[in-house]
């Protein structure tokens, strides 16, 4: 099973000039916990992410809700996998980097989708695949 097979829905994106308040509204409206920040001129080119946690941290720091997402999110060094990689790669990166969402890219570097921890635990087939691929071998 590949990451692209799990990331079935199109990603919800936002441009870097939008505010934290706008990001929160988009997340609530779409019932997602992560937005992919994309270039204004190229909406398929990801340049960062903003998560619910980023918004909470921004509010906790008493930053105004008019702070732009490029200041509140993670820019350029976000965690990603490729659509043709096995799902185990996504699970391992999510564990390694302690994130609940991971961006899925195609091999051209364009945004393909997002996988959430909920996606991983939501289907029996995925859990079986992860258990099989992650289990230590006995020799």
TrEMBL record:
Q: Tell me one Pfam family matched here.
A: CBS
InterPro entries in UniProt: CBS_dom, CBS_dom_sf, Diverse_CBS-Domain
Q: Where is the CBS domain?
A: 7-65, 74-132
List UniProt keywords, sorted A-Z: CBS domain
Stored CDD domains: CBS_pair_arch
PANTHER family, alphabetized:
CBS DOMAIN-CONTAINING PROTEIN, CBS DOMAIN-CONTAINING PROTEIN CBSX3, MITOCHONDRIAL
Q: What is this protein called?
A: CBS domain-containing protein
């Amino acid at each position: 099973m590949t990451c692209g097979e799990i990331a079935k829905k199109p990603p919800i994106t936002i441009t870097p000039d939008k505010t934290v308040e706008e990001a929160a509204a988009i997340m609530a409206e779409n019932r997602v916990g992560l937005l992919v920040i994309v270039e204004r001129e190229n909406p398929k080119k990801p340049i960062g992410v903003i998560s619910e946690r980023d918004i909470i941290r921004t509010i906790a720091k008493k930053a105004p809700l008019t702070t732009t997402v490029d200041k509140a999110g993670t820019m350029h060094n976000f965690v990603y996998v490729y659509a043709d990689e096995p799902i185990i790669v996504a699970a391992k990166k999510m564990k390694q980097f302690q994130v609940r969402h991971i961006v899925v890219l195609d091999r051209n570097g364009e945004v393909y989708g997002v996988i959430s921890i909920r996606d991983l635990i939501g289907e029996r087939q995925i859990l079986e695949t992860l258990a099989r691929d992650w289990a230590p071998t006995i020799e």
